Amino acid sequence: SPLYGFYEPDVKIIRKDTDRGKDVPHETFKCCKCGTRVYRNTTTKDKSSTSGLRSHAESCFGVEAVKAARESNDLDATRDLVKKAVKHKQGVLTGLFKSLIHKGKEIYSTMPLTNAETRAECVRWCAENYRPFKVVADRAFKKLMRTGRPQTYIPHPTTVSRDTKTLFAKTRRRLAKKFKTLQSRVHIVLDAWTSPNHKAFVAYKAHWEEDGEIVSTVLDFRELGEVCTLEILSCILTNIFAHPIVAHRRSTGHPHQDGTGRIWT
């Protein structure tokens, strides 16, 4: 039963006195969250019953979390999720179990997002759906978010912009470490084009194989001030690999390199 996942796997047998006799063997289960020990008599007909375990788990982890764990019917997955979320709120653990049950389906927690989680979701929203940062200041968006919950935190557009740049830098740092130990080859794709407002842009994208699947990511995105030449593209590409942590900047005209290898305008 997945209920055992809420308790430590090391089950001990002890003897204790009960109304049915002395030195009766009992199994002891230690709760992963509060450390409380739950005893189960091994001499009765219902020695395999989990009602006592369920009762304590519901009081400690929440009824919804226990129900979701039982529906998952996966002891190993339950134990792993409990270890990861034992210090979090009940709603977080419930959401993890529901995601295990409804794989591939969007599920929502009953607990409101923290300020940090809200900022992270706003960054993801703007990045995945190509939304401008100022969308979080939209009147209709605020009405949808705060109707019934007027205290709901909504970050300022400049906060979303700053968080996006921070996440971008951290992602570049993580990719730099990954590329050092990556076993497969990395294929680089360059895509340059001119927008309707006559501004030239170039994007660098990497593709590689990981665990039998193709993984892709954008390495950099630049605006070019003049006609895109092979020399400029090669210079920027060299800079990307030499310095994986690159701030947002514009390249105008003919970039040159100083002693650090950075491209300056």
Strand order of the largest sheet: 1-2-3
Shape: elongated
Overall mean pLDDT stands at 76
The count of β-strands is 8
Alpha plus pi helix count: 8
Please compute the radius of gyration using only Cα atoms: 27 Å
- Low-confidence spans: pLDDT under 50, at least 5 residues? 244-265
β-sheet strand percentage: 15-25%
Specify the helix fraction band.
Answer: 25-40%
The arrangement of helices and strands along the chain is EEEHHHHHHHEEEHEE
N- to C-terminal distance = 64 Å
Would you write up a description of this structure?
It is a single chain. The chain has 265 residues and is α+β, with helices and mostly antiparallel strands. The protein is 39% helix and 22% strand. The protein is built from eight helices and eight strands. Strands 1-2-3 form a three-stranded antiparallel β-sheet. α1 crosses α2, α3 (75-85) packs antiparallel against α4 and α5 packs across α7 (157-181). The model is unreliable at 244-265 (pLDDT under 50).
Question: Concise description?
Answer:
The chain has 265 residues and is of the alpha+beta class. 39% of the residues lie in helices and 22% in strands.
Topology at a glance:
Blueprint (H helix, E strand, L loop, with lengths): L11 E7 L2 E10 L6 E5 L9 H11 L1 H10 L2 H11 L4 H12 L13 H14 L10 H8 L10 H25 L5 E8 L5 E11 L2 E12 L5 H13 L13 E2 L5 E2 L1
Antiparallel strand pairs: 1-2, 2-3, 4-5, 5-6, 7-8
